[in-house]
Amino acid sequence: MLKVEHVTKYYDDFLAVDDLSFEVKPGEIFGLLGVNGAGKTTTFRMIMGLIDANSGSITLDGKKIGYDVTDKIGFLTEERSLLTKMTVKEQCLFYGNLKGMDNETILARLDELLKRFEITEYKDKKIKELSKGNQQKIQFITAILNNPKLLILDEPFSGLDPFNVELFKKIIIEMSEKGSMIIFSSHRMEHVELFCKKLVILVKGKTVISGYLSDIKEKYRKKNILIKGDVDIDKIKQIDGVISIEKRATELEVKIKDMSVADDVFKVVSKGKNISKFEIVEPSLNEIFISKVGETYEK
Fold this sequence. Notes:
The chain is α/β, with parallel strands linked by helices. It has helices at residues 40-47, 67-70, 88-98, 103-116, 132-144, 162-177, 189-195, 213-220, 233-237, 262-269, 285-298, and strands at residues 2-11, 14-24, 29-34, 55-60, 63-64, 73-76, 150-154, 181-185, 198-203, 206-212, 223-230, 242-247, 252-256, 273-281. Strand 4 and strand 5 form a beta hairpin.
């Protein structure tokens, strides 16, 4: 288990991370989210043992993270960290050796992953000769080459087309099913919702939301109603508790303050014509993120 307990980090007088705590258990995919400058990268660096916290502790399976423990960690950074003049094979040998792997094991694992990512022909190509998407595949391969116990993924789908996003997703889920602890960070909230049951959202280094996604949505209280058909929009707008109405291509999305408003909306909709849909849904994580982060900045 990864434990981050009451961690605080200053850069001189600047408070980058403020009393951060969370746990990631084997097999869990945990979301660490925030806008740029929220403290995510600093947190990743502390987990990796690259920088020290001013206070608090970070442990993996009860041990402080040092060089012996980092061999069990994989890290996919948002920025490209590949050595572009190396071939794919040379790059993976380099990273694998840093993780304490022998060459035979590295090359066997590399062949397995190149086949999985359908890029076996790039083994002896230089990194600089690859497309952005294929470079992202190689960067991901270097992060999981050592079958890490803890995998940190910072914007893993950057530069990928939808087909390859699905391929990455499948491998990430397989790794969690085999027991890897995964920390997932992305600005694409729909991707976070696909993976993460638990998450933390940081603003200026401080936790503003923490817990299970299902509980976070329940506490948010606000709901959305999706409607297809011909309805009196003006009458719906007049209902107390209706926050907004948004027209989509084929339906309306009505945002309401809580479930108590749904019956009043339904009474108006039931008088409409050609009604084929009336569905109450949870707000998206993107909606909650924008709302909570916005509230914090306004204080």
